[in-house]
Amino acid sequence: MTLADVLPHANAVMNATSTLALVAGFVAIRAKRIQLHRACMLMAVGASAVFLAGYLTRFALTGTHRFPDAGAVKVVYLAILFSHMVLAIAVVPIVFRLLFLASRARYAEHRKLARYGYPVWLYVSITGVVVYGMLYHLAPRLEVADEMAVAVCAVSR
To answer: What is the dihedral of CA 54, 98, 119, 15, to 10 degrees?
Structure first.
C-alpha cells in the first residue's frame, strides 16, 4: 500500500475529526466552557490543516479522480463537490479572521463572524466526508454494477 492509497482515507478521517471538533466546540461555547471551546476549535483548525496538506499531497501524486458516469448520482456528486470546493476556498480567510479576533479578545466581532463562518466550516467538513464516501466507496460499486449490466446485455443478445 502506497502513500497515495492511504491519503484519501486519512483525509476523510481529518475531515471527520474537524466535524466532531466543530460540533464539540459549539456545544462547549453554548455551555460557556471557554477553554474547552478554544481547545476544540484549535483541534478543528489542526485537523483541517492536516487534511489540506494531505489533500494537496494526494493531488500532486495522483491528480484528479473522475466519478463514473452514473446519471443522477453523478449530478448529485458534482453538485456536492462544487459547493464543497467553493465554500472550502471561502472558509479559509474566515477561519484565519476568527482566530485573529479570538486571539485579540475581540469576542463581539468573533461571535458575529462565527454565526456565518461556523455553518460554512461545518458544511465543508461534512461534505468532505460525503465526497470521499461517494468517490472512494460508492463510485467503485457503480462501476462494477455498470460492468455487470453491460455483461448481462452482451450475453442476452
So the answer is: 20
Single-letter residue type at 112: K
Instruction: Read off the pLDDT of each residue in 130-144 and give the average, rounded to a whole number.
Output: 86
Residues 6+ apart with CB under 8 A from 43: 17, 21
pLDDT at 134 exceeding the cut of 60: yes
Compute the average pLDDT of residues 29-58.
Answer: 97
* DSSP symbol at 31: T
Q: Is the pLDDT of residue 151 over 80?
A: no
Report the alpha-carbon distance of residue 104 to residue 98 in Å, rounded. Answer: 10
User: Which domain, by its residues, includes 93?
Assistant: 3-156
Into how many domains does the chain fold? 1
How far is residue 144 CA from its own chain's centroid? Answer: 26
DSSP per-residue letters across 93-155: HHHHHHHHHHHTT-HHHHHHHHHHHHHHHHHHHHHHHHHHHIIIIIHHHHHHHHHHHHHHHHH
